[in-house]
Recover the amino acids of this structure.
C-alpha cells in the first residue's frame, strides 16, 4: 500500500492509524493494548485474606483493592517479597535445621537470591511500567564467559570460552550437513537450487572452507588479539568434534534457547525487591510480618485463618474469601479444611531443590582480567553456574552469583554448613577464576528447599500432573483460591505468580458480582 | 590442587595469588594486566601536530602529553569526535552537495549516528575505565525483534519474530543431520557411542520428535502466550524449510556471530560522545575546530601544516612530527609532500558508503506494543536495520535507529533529499512498525559518504590490499604518521582507532628516544 493510500485510510478511520492498521490486518502479531486488569469494581466491600506477601500475594491485594475489596495480608517471614529476595547488608536467614547466617555485604551491594530475570513477554514488565519500577538489560548470554567441565574427556579441567565450543560445534554440524547434501545422501524435498542455497549458507554460517571443511574460525576467538598496524591476530585450531561431543554441554545451550530464557532479558534496577516494595507502597491493607499461618478453616460464609503473631500468640481472623499463595510444600503441612481431593493434590507436587550463592569480591576481576560483562559461566561442578552482574560495570567491588544449582547438587550443597559451603564455592569457583581466593570478602548461601516458608524453588509438574492434579489446584475450594507460580505455566518465574493472581482476582470478582 | 597447597604457593609467591597462578599456568587465557600504555617520557619537549579530533587524534594527543609532548590538534568539523558522533538537540550537519539539516530532537534525547557498539575485548573499555566514562549493556541480539523481507517467496512481506526463523532453521538442520547420522549416510570418524550422543543432543537442541522430525517448538514462540491456570499457550506450525531457504536471511545471522559482534556488547552511558569529551577534558593542547587542513608539507626537521582558520584565512603551523588521522578518502585530495608510493596507497583504499538515521517518536511503541527491549530488526528494504535503544526503557519518548544501510543502498539513500529520506524511512519502517506514522516526531539522516570530512564509513580492505598497500600506509613518511581505524585490523570500530593511535605513539616515542 502506498503511503498516500494509507493516510487516506487513516483519515477514514477517524484519524487513528492504529485502528486503520488493525482494520487492514497490518499487525501480524496482536498489538498489546495495556495489560492493566480492567474489572468491574464492587459496591459492597468484601474482605479477602491474602496468605503470603510474595509478589503473588501483593499483586492480588493490589488488584483487589483497586476494585474496592478490603485486604489483609499475612506473611510468615520477617520480610515481604517471598522468592523475590534481594540480599543486602545485614539480611538474615535461618534454615529449617536452625542454621543461621547474616550478610556482611557492603551497604551499596546486593544480590538477588531468587527470581531475577524477566523475559520481554512477561506481564512482570507491565507491572514495572504501571508501578514506575525502572528496568534495565540483564545480559543472559555472554559468548566470552566460560565453560569448565570435569571428567568429560580431552577438554576436561580447561577454561574454555563459550564462543570456542559453540563456533566449533556449529562449524562441524554445518560441515557434516553440507557434505551430506552435496553427496545426495539425504532424501531431501528441496529443489537443486534450494539445496545449493542451503549449502552456501551452511558454509557462510559455519565458516567452512570452499571444499566444505571446518578448520576453525575467527569467530571462536584469538590466542593473540588483532590489533593495529600489521597485527591481524592469531587463531588456534578448533577442538575435535569427538572431544566436543564428550564435553556434554547440552544443558547449557538449552538454557539459552527456551522461550523464557531467550535474549533480550531484563532485570529491575536496584534489585528485584524494588518490585515488591512498589506493590507495598500502593497497598492500603495491613501486611502482618512474622505471622505464620497455623490453620486454614472454612466458615459458613467465608474463611477463618489462625496464625501466630510476633509474640507467638495464636490469633484468628475471618474474611469473605482467602487467596492462598503459600508454596504447596509448606501448605501441605498446615491443618486446613481443604477438601480431600485438594489436600491430595497439594501434597502431590514435587518442588525443585535449588541453591543460590552471592559472593562479594574486593575487585571486579571478571571485568578487569577476564573481560566478562554480564552473562553466565557453566560448569558440571556442584556450583553449576556463575552469574556476572549486568550493572555497575567497572565499579570498585561487586557480587557474583557464585553458585546456582539444582536437585541433587542443591541437596548436597544445602546439607553443608555455611563454612563448608563457602569452602566448596571458593574451591570450585577458583578453577574458573583463580582470583577468587585473593579477592573474596564475604558470601551468602541460600538453599531454598531449606528455608522454612519456601521449602523449594518452584513447582515441578510433569505432563501427567498437568492433566490430573493441576486442574484440581486451580479450582476454588469453597471460598479459598490458590495462587502463585505453581498455578501457572511459568513455574519459577515472577510472571507466573502475577498471571496467577490476576486470574484468581478476576475469577473471584466475577463470582462476587454474580452473587449480586 | 588443594586449597591448602594453593595457599602455600601463594605464600611462596610473595603473597600474590596472581603471581602464583601465572607460575602455575592456571590462567588458560592470558590475564589482562592493565592496558595502560607505559612508555618512557621524553626530556626535551617535541611538538606533534595531530590532524583530526576523532578518537584516534584525541587518544594520540592524550597519550603523547602523558610523555611530555606538546600537541596541537586541528579539526575540520565544528565539533570533536569524528565518527563518534552523537546527534542531539540542535546538532547541524551539511553534506558535500550543500544539503543541510538541523536536529529538532528533544533536549534529553540523542542517538549515535556513527560508532556505538563496544565489544568486550576492545581497548575502548580500558579507556572508559581510565577516563571514568560509565558503560552499560548494548542489547545487540533480540530474539523478539523482527525480520521483514520483500520478494523472497512464501514468507515475503510478513513480520516474523527472529526466534521463529532461527528455531525453525535449527530444527530442520538438526533433523537432517540426525537422520543422516542414523542412516550411516556420513563417513564419520566417530565411535558409535559418540554418534548416539550427537544425535541425542541434536534432538534436544532442535526440539525434534523421538523419531527425529522437527515439527515446531515452543522456543519459536506462541500465537497465544501461556498464562495462569489452564492456559498452556498455543504454538503454530513451523515454516517450510524451502520457504526459509528462499528467505535468504544469511547476512543477518552472520551479523551476530563475528568476533566483534558477539554478545555481550556494551555502549557508553549517555552517548558515544562522552568518550571524546572525556579525552578532551584531559588534553592540554589546543584543539582548533573548523580548521580544515589545506596542505601537509615536510620541512627539513619536521612538518608544516597549512589550514584555514574560522575566518577562512590560511594559517601555517610547524611541528616536529605529525599524526594524521584524516580518513584516506579526504586525505587523498589534500596537497601534500607524501612520497609517491604513499600517495598511491592513500588513493587506493575504498571506503564503505553507509547511512544511519535517528527517528524520534512520541511513544516507545516497540516496547509497549511489540515488547522489544533493545536489539535489531532486519529487512532487505533500503533501511536494512532498525536498532531499538537498550536504555531508558519505558520512558516517555525514544529515538530509534530507523535505518543503517551500506553500499548501494546507502548511496541511493544519500542521493535523496532530506524530505525524500524521511518519506522512505517512514514508509519502509511502517511495514514493520505501523505505529511509525502516528508516533513520528522528527528525524536526522546521516549519509557518512556525503559528509565532507568523512567521505565514507570505514576503510574496506580485501585480502590483497592488506598485503600490498596496507603495509605502506603503516610506514611513517618522514615525520608523518598515519593513524585511525584504517590502520588497524578493526576497521569501523572505535577500538581500531585507539589501537592504531597507541601503536603510532609508541613507534614515534621510540624514535624520539633513539635519536637521543
Amino acid at each position: 500500500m502506498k503511503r498516500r493510500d494509507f493516510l487516506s485510510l487513516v483519515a477514514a478511520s477517524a484519524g487513528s492509524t492504529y485502528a486503520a492498521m488493525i482494520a487492514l490486518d497490518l499487525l501480524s502479531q496482536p498489538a498489546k493494548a495495556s495489560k492493566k486488569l480492567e474489572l468491574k469494581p464492587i459496591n459492597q466491600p468484601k474482605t479477602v485474606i491474602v496468605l503470603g506477601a510474595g509478589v503473588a500475594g501483593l499483586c492480588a491485594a493490589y488488584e483487589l483493592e483497586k476494585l474496592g475489596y478490603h485486604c489483609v495480608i499475612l506473611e510468615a517471614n520477617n520480610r515481604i517479597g517471598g522468592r523475590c529476595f534481594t540480599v543486602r547488608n545485614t539480611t538474615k536467614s535461618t534454615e529449617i535445621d536452625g542454621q543461621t547466617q547474616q550478610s556482611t555485604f557492603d551497604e551499596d551491594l546486593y544480590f538477588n537470591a531468587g527470581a531475577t530475570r524477566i523475559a520481554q513477554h512477561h506481564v512482570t514488565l507491565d507491572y514495572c511500567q504501571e508501578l514506575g519500577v525502572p528496568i534495565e538489560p540483564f545480559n543472559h548470554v555472554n559468548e566470552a564467559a566460560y565453560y569448565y567441565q570435569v571428567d568429560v574427556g580431552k577438554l576436561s579441567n580447561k577454561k574454555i570460552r563459550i564462543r570456542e565450543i559453540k563456533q566449533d560445534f556449529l562449524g562441524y554440524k554445518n560441515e557434516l550437513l553440507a557434505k551430506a547434501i552435496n553427496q545426495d545422501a539425504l532424501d531431501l524435498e528441496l529443489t537443486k537450487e534450494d539445496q545449493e542455497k542451503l549449502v552456501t549458507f551452511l558454509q557462510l554460517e559455519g565458516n567452512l572452507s570452499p571444499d566444505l571443511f571446518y578448520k576453525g574460525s575467527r569467530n571462536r576467538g584469538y590466542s593473540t588479539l588483532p590489533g593495529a598496524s600489521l597485527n591481524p591476530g592469531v587463531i588456534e585450531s578448533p577442538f575435535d568434534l569427538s572431544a566436543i561431543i564428550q564435553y556434554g554441554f547440552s544443558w547449557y545451550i538449552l538454557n539459552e534457547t527456551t522461550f523464557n530464557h531467550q535474549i533480550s532479558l531484563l532485570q529491575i534496577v536496584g534489585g528485584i525487591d524494588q518490585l515488591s516494595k512498589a506493590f507495598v507502597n500502593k497497598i492500603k491493607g495491613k501486611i502482618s510480618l512474622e505471622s505464620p499461618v497455623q490453620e486454614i478453616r472454612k466458615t459458613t460464609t467465608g474463611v477463618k485463618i489462625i496464625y501466630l503473631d510476633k509474640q507467638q500468640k495464636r490469633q484468628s481472623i475471618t474474611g469473605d474469601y482467602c487467596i492462598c499463595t503459600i508454596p504447596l510444600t509448606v501448605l501441605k503441612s498446615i491443618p486446613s479444611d481443604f477438601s480431600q481431593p485438594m489436600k491430595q493434590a497439594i501434597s502431590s507436587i514435587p518442588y525443585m531443590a535449588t541453591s543460590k550463592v552471592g559472593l562479594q569480591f574486593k575487585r571486579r576481576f571478571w571485568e578487569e582480567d577476564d573481560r566478562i560483562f554480564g552473562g553466565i559461566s557453566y560448569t558440571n561442578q556442584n556450583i553449576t553456574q556463575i552469574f556476572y552482574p549486568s550493572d555497575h560495570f567497572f565499579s570498585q567491588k561487586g557480587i557474583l552469583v557464585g553458585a546456582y544449582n539444582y536437585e541433587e547438587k542443591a541437596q548436597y550443597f544445602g546439607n553443608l554448613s555455611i563454612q563448608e559451603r563457602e569452602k566448596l564455592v571458593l574451591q570450585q569457583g577458583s578453577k574458573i577464576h583463580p582470583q577468587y581466593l585473593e579477592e573474596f570478602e564475604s558470601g551468602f548461601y541460600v538453599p531454598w528447599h531449606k528455608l522454612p516458608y519456601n521449602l523449594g524453588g518452584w513447582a515441578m509438574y510433569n505432563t501427567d500432573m498437568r492433566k490430573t492434579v493441576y486442574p484440581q489446584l486451580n479450582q476454588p475450594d469453597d471460598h479459598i483460591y490458590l495462587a502463585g507460580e505453581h498455578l501457572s505455566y511459568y513455574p519459577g518465574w515472577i510472571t507466573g505468580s502475577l498471571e496467577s493472581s490476576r486470574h484468581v482476582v478476576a475469577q473471584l470478582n466475577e463470582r462476587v458480582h454474580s452473587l449480586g
